[in-house]
Structures are given as C-alpha cells and as structure tokens.
C-alpha cells in the first residue's frame, strides 16, 4: 500500500513537514506495513520555500534586508538548483513581522523583497519562483522596484523616498532602464493563490487593505493612488495590465512584476507540485492524503488541497483531506476532487490550547481515519 501525504501547513500552528509526519504516525498505528511518501506543500504563501527546498535537497540562503518598516532583519530564500531561487515575500515584507499597532499600509514597503531578488540576481540566479502570500504592504511593488534600482519622481523631479504607499500619489514619472540589463534572460514565475485585479471593489486595497491596518478612508485613498500609478505605467510601457487576474496580489506586487519585468502569474500550488515532482508519486499511490489549517469555501480557489485533488483525479485516486478546522461551505471541496474531509479540532478548546494540542489531535484524527479505512 502506497500512501502519499501531501499537505500544506496549518498556519501559525504546524509546519507542512510536521503535518505530514504526524499524519503518518497516526496511519502507521493501523497500516504498519504501508509505504509512506511525505511531500510537504505550499501554494505560494507561508512554507513555500521550506517545501521546495526540502523536496529538492536545496539550500537556504540568509540575507540581511529591510523589513516592512525599514528595520534591519535576517531573511532568507531557497536555492533549489544553482540557477533557481524560491523567495517568499512574507519573509521580508509580511504581516507576521509586525505588531498589531504597527500595521499601516501607508508606511509599509516591499523594499526588502527587492533586496532578496537583487541578492539572488547578483549570485547568478536566472530562474525565480516568487511567492506573494501574507504581505503587509499595499505599495504596488514600488518598494521592491526601488531596491532593484528603479527611480520614481514627483512633479518637480525630486526622487520619491522609500516609504510605503504614502507617496504613491506624488509619482509623476520614473526611470526603469536599469531593469533591461538586470533581467535579461531571467525567467520569473509568480506563485499566486488570489485572482484579484489591481484596483476597484475586488482589488488589492478594498479586499486586503483592512487586514493590513487600513481604515475605510485610507482604503479609498490607496485605491485611487495605485489606479493613477497603474495608468502612468501602462502609458509608459504601452500595455494594459492592471486587470489581469492576480495583479492585486500582495498589495499590487503582482502588477509590478507583470508590468516591469514581464513575470508570469501562475497558480502557486501548480508551480510547487511541478517543482517537487508530486505527479509521479500520485500516479503510483493507493491513497492520497492532503490538508491545510482551515478548509472552507475559499479552499476551492486554488488552495493546496484542491490542487492535490485535481492532480489525483487525473489518475482516479481517492483523496482524503485532514484540516485544523472546518469553515463556511467547506462541503464545496467535494465538487473538486476531495472524497472525504476530517477536522481535528475539539470545539470545546480555546485557540491557545488547540495550538498546543494540535499535533496530538492531528495524529489521533489520522489514526481514526485509518481505522475507518481498515474496516472489513
């Protein structure tokens, strides 16, 4: 019996690697002679670097960069071969780096993310996988571009400083000529799990601004500022890009990558599954187990369990999902290739206790699932 375990992390609780190992422990109590293949996954957000480095025997590169508020921190990216880097923007510009009272997209910058890209470029990397999940920024990627050498100017031709979205409204021109040589023969895949355009009611500011600390008034100002900036860019480059699905990812970072360096926005989970070689393992599997921290109606929009299920159904394999908890309309996943869903969370526990007990509850749930599967 070949059992493939390919989960995402349980966010802020258990890493994808630990999720896979814990599920295996539960299943081994019943299927003692099964062959287990653990392949931790991510969909472009938290854990993408770890998952891909682990699967490819790559290495972690540590670099001192600026965090969202321009404080020096040690961040990292992964090398999965000598020419390919995997970078999560959250490691430099993520919400997890800020205290609650520090969240304010007017002040947060993606500059550190650009510094990581720069470091990789200077060390000969030609292929990039960039994960955009978990951003604290709404600067339309301007900070990243500044780190890469792009200069932005106001109407008096003064250079705009590196300070979040505060000065986007002042930008009247820019010089991006440095990018032509820097990104010559460079391929960039953007691992993205959202389909939002840049602006409007379904855009970066209105959908994600509040969680980054923006007030209602601030959200409207942000949307107007990046809309004007997008028009400036589109006029300069002679192409319309702001309505492409995914341009609103990471506060408009998707837009910057498409418009300035001709990156391709792709399904994060599809990129990761391809890079880690999941298909060859699924092809020979008896059963596939996947999961994530919360399964709800958003799971069907390109999250890890659905990516795994779609690949499994290509070979008519059964798929079980184990998650931390179930949310609204979770049953929609049954229409997308998942055959059964189990959650591990006892309702009577508070969240801090749930976090402490998560591995035990995960193992017990996996054990119970295996017992059901083993019924004669």
Break the fold down into its secondary structure elements and pairings.
Layout: E1 2-5, H1 16-28, E2 35-38, H2 48-56, E3 59-66, E4 72-81, E5 84-88, H3 90-93, H4 111-122, E6 127-131, H5 142-147, E7 151-153, E8 173-175, H6 178-182, E9 187-192, H7 204-208, H8 216-237, H9 253-261, E10 264-267, H10 268-276, H11 278-283, E11 287-290, E12 294-295, H12 304-313, E13 319-323, E14 325-326, E15 340-343, H13 351-373
Parallel strand pairs: 1-2, 1-11, 5-6, 6-9, 9-10, 11-13, 12-14, 13-15
Antiparallel strand pairs: 3-4, 4-5, 7-8
Helix pairs in contact: 1-13
Provide a compact summary of the structure.
The chain has 376 residues and is an alpha/beta fold. Helices cover 35% and strands 18% of the residues. It has two domains: 2-39 and 293-344 and 352-373, Rossmann fold, CATH 3.40.50.10350; 48-268, Glycerate kinase, domain 2 (Alpha-Beta Complex).
Structural features, described:
This protein has a 6-stranded mixed sheet with strand order 3-4-5-6-9-10, with helices on both faces. A 5-stranded parallel sheet has the order 2-1-11-13-15, with helices on both faces. By secondary structure, it is of the alpha/beta class. It has 13 helices and 15 strands. It has 2 domains: 2-39 and 293-344 and 352-373, Rossmann fold (3-Layer(aba) Sandwich); 48-268, Glycerate kinase, domain 2 (Alpha-Beta Complex). The two termini are 16 Å apart. Strand 1 (2-5), helix 1 (16-28) and strand 2 form a beta-alpha-beta unit. The model has no long low-confidence stretch (mean pLDDT 92). The chain has helices spanning 16-28, 48-56, 90-93, 111-122, 142-147, 178-182, 204-208, 216-237, 253-261, 268-276, 278-283, 304-313, 351-373, and strands spanning 2-5, 35-38, 59-66, 72-81, 84-88, 127-131, 151-153, 173-175, 187-192, 264-267, 287-290, 294-295, 319-323, 325-326, 340-343.
């Amino acid at each position: 019996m070949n059992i493939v375990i390919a989960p995402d992390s349980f966010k802020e609780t258990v890493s994808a690697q630990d999720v896979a190992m814990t599920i295996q422990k539960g299943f081994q109590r019943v299927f003692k002679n099964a062959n287990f293949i653990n392949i931790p996954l991510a969909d472009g957000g938290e854990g993408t670097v770890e998952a891909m480095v682990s699967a490819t025997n790559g290495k972690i590169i540590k670099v001192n960069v600026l965090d969202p508020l321009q404080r020096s921190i040690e961040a990292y990216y992964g090398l999965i071969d000598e020419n390919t880097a995997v970078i999560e923007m959250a490691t430099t510009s993520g919400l997890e780096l800020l205290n609650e009272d520090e969240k304010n997209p007017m002040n947060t910058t993606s500059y550190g993310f650009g510094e990581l890209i720069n470091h990789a470029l200077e060390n000969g990397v030609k292929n990039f996988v960039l994960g955009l999940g978990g951003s604290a920024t709404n600067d339309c990627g301007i900070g990243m571009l500044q780190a890469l050498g792009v200069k932005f100017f106001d109407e008096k031709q003064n250079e705009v400083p590196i300070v979040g979205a505060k000065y986007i409204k002042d930008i009247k021109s820019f010089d991006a000529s440095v990018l032509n040589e820097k990104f010559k023969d460079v391929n960039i895949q953007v691992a993205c799990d959202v389909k939002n355009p840049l602006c409007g009611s379904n855009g970066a500011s209105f959908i994600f601004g509040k969680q980054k600390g923006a007030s209602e008034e601030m959200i409207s100002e942000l949307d107007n500022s990046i809309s004007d900036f997008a028009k400036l860019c589109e006029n300069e480059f002679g192409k319309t890009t702001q309505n492409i699905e995914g341009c609103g990812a990471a506060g408009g970072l998707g837009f910057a990558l498409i418009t300035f360096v001709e990156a391709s926005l792709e399904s994060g989970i599809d990129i990761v599954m391809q890079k880690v070689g999941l298909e060859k393992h699924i092809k020979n599997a008896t059963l596939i187990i996947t999961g994530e921290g919360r399964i709800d109606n958003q799971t069907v929009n390109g999250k890890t369990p659905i990516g795994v299920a779609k690949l499994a159904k290509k070979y008519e394999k059964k798929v079980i999902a184990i998650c931390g908890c179930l949310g609204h309309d979770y049953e929609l996943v049954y229409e997308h290739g998942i055959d059964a869903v189990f959650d591990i969370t006892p309702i009577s526990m508070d969240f801090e206790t749930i976090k402490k007990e998560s591995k035990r509850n995960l193992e017990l749930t996996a054990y119970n699932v295996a017992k059901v599967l083993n019924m004669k």
